């Protein structure tokens, strides 16, 4: 099955011309202007406290999804599952709940939905009884041909119990004619496209898999004699596990009581991990590709200062994600770093803003100006990214209201001009600020004195590579470049091939 694509990226239909004064992007479901993390997955095989450790691992990965959490365990006789809406600490915080999740193997999942409604039946891990026994699957990412496959499955008589793209994996595994469960799973993932990291559990096997170009992250660790899988190394640190290595792109790892084995069901391809893990998604104390996320974010600030200096008095981060880049910017420029914005960490995600005059104050719920630092100063604001631009606009005004003489905005990533389809919840192109305006138009919309973004080359330099070097890795950077690394079947309206044909093509590829 074709995994790459050299075609022009999908372009949405043209929209009516807008100006900085009339641009009104739609609100995100969370009521703010941030990119939303995909999901977090965790699995452990061969430990008597498997469920408790899985809950701890999900705590460490809470930043990757806050809508819901779930754990499935197996005790040698039967499967146990708990799936709840809300935060991990609100659902898996007592011995009673963990006590119901018996067994020495478990998989867990933090959810932020990029496909499917926010309802309990979509909360993962998804579980089904197959003719080979119970099968649970936790998934981080998004399958770009899931809707096309789902339509074919339903037309063939399948009954879907959720609206999540992950469910197609259960159906494809169930319908596979292969003998072993591992072969069935491989048969299933050969039929899907997109970005994914899977951790699956059966009565005697744990399976972990990463998409053929490694868009979504997944790591392998050891805790005594137990094996651990997680979206990030910070989850291994949380449970005291030793980092072994990353699950490689296109790799399927199988864990049994006898140990682990690695399968390579796809032709070898160059890895293209998601650049946004470094920019925003991963926790700063995680390590990706052997590199410190925190260190790279500081270096992004260094590169930004080299590319876009400004005559200012103080460097102010937009907390919390803008802090490392601001430290790097201040270090390189010699301008003092100050916490000119104080973030309130106790704002509920469902705060109601019923009237426009109250809604206008909404930014102050999360961010307050440190007037002592701001008043009478020329300040430079540092943030990691800009999506719709609505929060940036409010914070710029907040700085002026606090007495700033000038407000210069610097963004430690390139302009986001294209939506993502691999597990990041990005708006439609019509709601992306950089897809609708040039640099001057964006500056006018925000109301900043000046505005500059880090270049694509600057991002690569920060990660430690030179794009001019043909040996340098290529990241998944389509949000900046429009170059999508796989086919977008569901977005382009293409029909999925017959699933049996897909299996046969994969076997001979």
- What name goes with the CATH superfamily of the largest domain? Aminohydrolase, N-terminal nucleophile (Ntn) domain
User: Pairing-aware structural class of the strands and helices?
Assistant: alpha+beta
Distance between the termini: 8 Å
Low-confidence stretches: 1-15, 349-354, 497-509
Rg from alpha-carbon coordinates: 23 Å
How many domains? The number is 2
Going by CATH, the architecture of the largest domain would be 4-Layer Sandwich
Proportion of helical residues: 25-40%
- How much strand content do the residues show? 15-25%
CATH topological fold name of the largest domain: Glutamine Phosphoribosylpyrophosphate, subunit 1, domain 1
Provide structural commentary:
The protein has 20 helices and 21 strands. With 509 residues, the chain is of the alpha+beta class. It folds into two domains: 252 residues, Glutamine Phosphoribosylpyrophosphate, subunit 1, domain 1; 159 residues, Rossmann fold (3-Layer(aba) Sandwich), CATH 3.40.50.2020. A seven-stranded antiparallel beta sheet has the order 3-2-4-1-10-9-11, covered by helices on one side. A six-stranded antiparallel beta sheet has the order 5-6-7-8-12-13. Helix 5 packs across helix 6. The N terminus and C terminus are likely disordered.
In short:
With 509 residues, this protein is of the alpha+beta class. It contains 20 helices and 21 strands.
């Amino acid at each position: 099955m074709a995994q790459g694509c050299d075609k022009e990226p999908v372009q949405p239909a043209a929209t009516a011309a807008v100006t900085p004064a009339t641009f009104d992007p739609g609100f995100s479901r969370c009521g703010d202007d941030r990119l939303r993390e995909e999901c977090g997955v965790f699995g452990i095989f061969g430990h008597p406290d498997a469920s408790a450790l899985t809950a701890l691992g999900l705590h460490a990965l809470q930043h990757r999804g806050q809508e819901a959490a779930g754990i499935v365990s197996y005790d040698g006789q039967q499967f146990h599952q708990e799936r709840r809406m809300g935060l991990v600490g609100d659902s898996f915080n007592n011995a009673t709940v963990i006590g119901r999740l018996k067994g020495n193997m478990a998989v867990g999942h933090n959810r932020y939905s990029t496909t499917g409604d926010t309802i309990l039946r979509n909360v993962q891990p998804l579980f089904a009884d197959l003719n080979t026994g119970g099968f649970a699957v936790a998934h981080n990412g998004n399958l770009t041909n899931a809707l096309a496959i789902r339509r074919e499955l339903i037309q063939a008589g399948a009954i879907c119990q959720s609206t999540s793209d992950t469910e197609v994996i259960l159906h494809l595994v169930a319908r596979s004619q292969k003998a072993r469960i591992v072969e069935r799973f491989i048969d299933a993932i050969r039929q899907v496209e997109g970005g994914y990291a899977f951790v699956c559990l059966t009565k005697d096997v744990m399976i972990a898999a990463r998409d053929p170009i490694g868009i979504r992250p997944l790591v392998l660790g050891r805790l005594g004699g137990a094996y651990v899988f997680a979206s990030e190394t910070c989850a291994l640190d949380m449970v005291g596990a030793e980092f072994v290595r990353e699950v490689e792109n296109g790799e399927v790892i199988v864990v049994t009581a006898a140990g682990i084995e690695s399968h390579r069901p796809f032709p070898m391809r160059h890895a293209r991990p998601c650049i946004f893990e470094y920019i925003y998604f991963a926790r700063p104390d995680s390590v990706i590709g052997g590199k410190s996320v925190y260190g790279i974010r500081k270096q992004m600030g260094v590169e930004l200062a080299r590319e876009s200096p400004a005559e200012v008095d103080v460097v102010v981060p937009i907390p919390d994600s803008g802090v490392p880049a601001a430290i790097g910017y201040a270090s390189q420029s010699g301008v003092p770093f100050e916490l000119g914005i104080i973030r309130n960490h106790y704002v509920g995600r469902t705060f109601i803003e019923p009237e426009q005059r109250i809604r206008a104050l909404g930014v102050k719920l999360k961010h307050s100006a440190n007037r002592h630092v701001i008043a009478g100063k020329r300040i430079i604001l540092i943030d990691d990214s800009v999506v719709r631009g609505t929060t940036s606009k409010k914070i710029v005004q907040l700085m002026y209201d606090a007495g700033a003489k000038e407000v210069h905005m610097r963004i430690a990533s390139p302009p986001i001009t294209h939506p993502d389809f691999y597990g990041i919840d990005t708006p439609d192109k019509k709601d992306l600020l950089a897809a609708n305006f040039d640099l001057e138009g964006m500056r006018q919309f925000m109301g900043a004195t000046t505005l500059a973004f880090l270049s694509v080359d600057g991002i690569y330099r920060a990660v430690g590579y030179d794009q001019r070097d043909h040996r340098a890795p290529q990241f998944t950077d389509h949000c900046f470049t429009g170059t999508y690394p796989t086919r977008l079947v569901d977005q382009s309206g293409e029909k999925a091939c017959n699933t049996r044909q897909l299996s046969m093509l994969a076997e001979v590829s």
